[in-house]
């Protein structure tokens, strides 16, 4: 028995270590810094102290923000597109789950949105499951470690968009040049009005047709937030190329792919308006690291 003891102990150690590594990678929450909330969560009710907004089931309008949501049906897929026009780029913001930057710190898109007074929100890039990829949020640089070959979306303080390759420029340099947000997922879908992905291009090992999330800019301070349902009998989902085609068809000059699959969620006026799903069997939100939103 003694001659097998070390082998048994080694096997137990190896199993425990493997479990710890998996837990550390995907489960254990680590908070690195606390984020000061941008507001008290009440901006969407009052229009920041101005006249009451004009609100319907599919639209919102006040002196600074105009949102119209249109539901499309293409490629056997339901697509929600929110047309957003702003008076200032300050109303295009991001937020982190639990107001904390860290690893595996997550919450539902709807919860993060409500906590930050969002009128409209979509899931972001799920930075918290990655060890690299730029993280710049609301002018604060949290991570300056590039992912090789990754295209990132830079949103500048004036609201303009730029697609960059992370290894070609540091996040610090972008911050100094006026960057306000950097989202690191990708790829770019549309650049200068032209489709920027191939028909066979895909994210990692994702299935061809998926729930998708994307953001685009049509012209200065005029944006579109897009989420497609997928993986269900009612909605098949889109390939990256089909998503790029759609973004181009609605006029996006620049469009960028965000985290999709079970993360794809669009929130408007206090409600999730799409059908988020991971497995196609149950409709429920996946907890994520961050959101992109419109609000005060």
In the sheet with the most strands, the strands line up as: 2-3-4-5-18-17-19-15-16
Unreliably modeled segments = 16-23, 40-46
Fraction of residues in H or I helices: 10-25%
The major β-sheet equals: 9 strands, antiparallel
State the secondary-structure class.
alpha+beta
Q: Taking Cα atoms only, what radius of gyration do you get, to the nearest Å? A: 20 Å
* Euclidean distance between termini CA atoms: 69 Å
List the helices and strands in order. Answer: HEHEEEEEEEHEEEEEHEEEEEHEEEEE
* Mean pLDDT over all positions: 90
How many strands appear in the DSSP assignment? Answer: 23
The outline comes out as: globular
Strand content: 35-45%
Helical run tally:
5
Pfam family, one: NAGPA
GO molecular function: hydrolase activity, acting on glycosyl bonds
Keywords: Glycosidase, Hydrolase
Protein name: Phosphodiester glycosidase family protein
Task: Explain this structure.
The chain is of the alpha+beta class. It has five helices and 23 strands. It has helices spanning 2-26, 43-46, 109-115, 171-176, 240-249; strands at 30-34, 54-56, 59-61, 65-74, 77-86, 92-96, 100-103, 107-108, 118-123, 135-137, 140-143, 151-156, 161-165, 179-183, 188-191, 194-195, 212-219, 222-228, 254-258, 266-268, 271-272, 287-288, 290-295. The strands form six sheets. It has a nine-stranded antiparallel β-sheet, covered by helices on one side. The longest helix is centred in the N-terminal third of the chain and has 25 residues, at 2-26. Residues 16-23 and 40-46 have low confidence and may be disordered.
């Amino acid at each position: 028995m003694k001659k097998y003891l070390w082998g048994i102990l080694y096997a137990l150690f190896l199993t425990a270590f493997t479990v710890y590594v998996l837990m550390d990678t995907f489960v254990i929450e680590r908070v690195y810094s606390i984020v000061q909330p941008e507001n008290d969560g009440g901006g969407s009710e009052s229009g920041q102290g101005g006249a009451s907004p004009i609100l319907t089931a599919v639209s919102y309008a006040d002196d600074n923000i105009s949102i119209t949501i249109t539901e499309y049906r293409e490629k056997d897929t339901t697509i929600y597109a929110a047309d957003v026009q702003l008076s200032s780029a300050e109303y295009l913001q991001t937020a982190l789950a639990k107001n904390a930057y860290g690893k595996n710190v997550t919450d539902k898109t709807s919860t993060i949105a409500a906590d930050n007074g969002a009128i409209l929100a979509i899931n972001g890039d799920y930075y918290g499951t990655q060890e690299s990829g730029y993280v710049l949020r609301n002018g604060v640089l949290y991570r300056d470690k590039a992912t090789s070959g990754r295209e990132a979306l830079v949103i500048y303080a004036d609201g303009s968009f730029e697609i960059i390759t992370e290894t070609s420029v540091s996040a610090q340099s972008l911050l100094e040049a006026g960057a306000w947000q950097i989202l690191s997922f990708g790829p770019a879908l549309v650049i200068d009005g032209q489709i920027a992905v191939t028909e066979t291009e895909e994210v990692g090992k994702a299935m061809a047709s998926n729930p998708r999330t994307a953001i685009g800019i049509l012209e200065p301070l005029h944006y579109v937030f897009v989420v497609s349902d997928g993986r269900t009998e009612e909605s098949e989902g889109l390939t990256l190329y089909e998503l790029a085609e759609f973004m181009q068809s609605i006029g996006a000059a620049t469009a960028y792919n965000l985290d999709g699959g079970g993360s794809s969620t669009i929130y408007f006026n206090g409600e999730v308006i799409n059908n988020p799903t991971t497995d196609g069997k149950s409709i429920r939100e996946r907890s994520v690291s961050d959101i992109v939103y419109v609000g005060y």
